[in-house]
Write a structure and sequence with these properties.
Layout: H1 2-28, E1 35-37, E2 42-47, E3 52-58, E4 62-70, E5 77-83, E6 88-91, E7 100-105, E8 109-117, E9 124-134
Antiparallel strand pairs: 1-9, 2-9, 3-8, 4-7, 4-9, 5-6, 5-8
């Protein structure tokens, strides 16, 4: 009887741990040519109208790529970039929820990045945000 419970549990753990690796691989494909990941993986499990908030510093005279990925479809994630006074600098919602965007900073800027699910498409799931810099 114990073995009957252990076998399904093994498959659930295996499948759930394999899913993020595939998502991360998809995310990193957006860095292929000109960008290198900063090595951080920002992630959150969201449901409904929840918002994940991430903080990052972008340095003067550098070009960055923000990439947002999810388990279902990479265009289900809405992300906004604000300066520390909460002035909106960019929203991918204005560009059909594009999964990535390139940003240039002429001065060093501390930013707040908010990510949420487009609840018209998906009501819960994992959100990954990656930041890369141009090399």
């Amino acid at each position: 009887m114990k073995y009957l419970l252990i076998i399904p549990l093994f498959f659930i753990v295996t499948l759930s741990s394999a899913q993020p690796a595939g998502i991360m691989e998809t995310c990193q494909n957006y860095f292929k040519d000109k960008y290198i990941s900063d090595g951080q993986q920002y992630r959150a499990l969201l449901a409904g109208e929840e918002v994940a908030e991430f903080h990052a510093t972008f340095y003067e005279d550098n070009r960055y790529r923000l990439v947002a990925c999810g388990a279902r479809d990479n265009q289900t994630i809405v992300f906004n970039v604000y300066d520390k006074e909460r002035n909106l600098l960019f929203s991918n919602k204005d560009y059909d929820n594009t999964p990535y965007w390139d940003l240039y900073f002429s001065s060093t800027t501390d930013c707040i990045i908010e990510a949420r699910l487009d609840t018209n498409i998906q009501s819960s799931g994992i959100v990954y945000l990656l930041i890369g810099f141009e090399h």
